[in-house]
Amino acid sequence: MRLDRQRLLDGVEWIFKGDVNPWVYAWLRVAFALLLLVRHSSVLAPIVPLEHHRWVSGLEFEWSVAREPHLVSPLIAGLDLTRPATNLLAWVRTGLGALLLLGIWSRWSALALALVSYWLMLSDRFQYQHHLHLLYFSIAWLALAPLDARLSVEQWLRRIPAPRRVPAWPLVLLLTVAMSVYLAAGTAKLDVGWLSGDTLRALEVIGVLQGGAWLAARDLLGYATLAWLVALLELGLPISLALPLTRRAAVACGLLLHLGVSFCMDVSIFGAEMSCLLLAWLVIPRPPTHH
């Protein structure tokens, strides 16, 4: 099949010259700020009782490696922190999260929030988790977007006229992150241990997979069928999200996938993060057709 060069050029041009409704950046800003505050503070634990709240004490996690004697093992040399510095940065992170949530100096708040969060995470390699990296990266990338156009205290106080359309490229490139997550997860599952269902059996034995939803799915489909189904979904989502004709169905399938996983195992806020990125796909219009 011959590559339509002009259509490809139109699509690339649209990525950097297209526009979207500014509301999408506003609710992504609010959503990721809320997720950060929920993940790193016990304040919302009674309202959002996630599994990780068992370890929350005030603003920071009580990791076993953080208890005395403290094991300092920075992921990058020179980033290790003392306990007072860690506590201070945890408070700073919470304050920046609140500023981002309210829409006050949103871009600078997002950038500073990402830098402080990464410093806290990289100061001890045992605190690294993939969903935290996804959260911090998304917030850092949002610093490139016009975040104050809607739901912004600063915009309201200054009475700045809100634009009807804003550049799409920060959103389009951020959403490629979601595609890469699915592609990496699906590719990693192209393994005999996973496709045979043995990995799911092992996860069930050690108590990672549990609950009524898991038992029902296991009894209905079996280990191997479930393993194949998840792998195929994750591999198919990047392609189906990229195609306008299949995008809505892909978003629905992705949401069901994350809902099912969240019912069967503890994934903290990962499902919520990916669901936010999935829903943002719905505002991406079709690239222009060249005539």
Following the backbone from N to C, one meets helices and strands in this order, namely HEHEEHHHHEHHHHHHH
In round numbers, the mean pLDDT is: 82
* Biggest beta-sheet profile: 2 strands, antiparallel
Helix-strand category: mainly alpha
| Helix proportion | 55-70%
Number of helices: 13
Q: Estimate the strand proportion.
A: under 5%
The coarse overall form would be globular
Q: What does the radius of gyration come to? A: 21 Å
Q: Multimeric state of these chains?
A: single chain
Strand order of the largest sheet: 1-4
Total domain units: 2
The CA-CA distance between the termini, in Å, is 20 Å
What does this structure look like?
The protein is mainly α and 291 residues long. The chain has two domains: 22-166, no CATH class; 168-291, no CATH class. Helix content is 61%, strand content 3%. The strands form two sheets. The chain has a two-stranded antiparallel sheet with strand order 1-4. The chain has a two-stranded antiparallel sheet with strand order 2-3. Strand 2 (56-57) and strand 3 (60-61) form a beta hairpin. Helix 4 packs antiparallel against helix 5. The chain is globular and about 60 Å long. The two termini are 20 Å apart.
Compose a concise summary of this entry.
With 291 residues, this protein is mostly helical. The chain contains 13 helices and four strands.
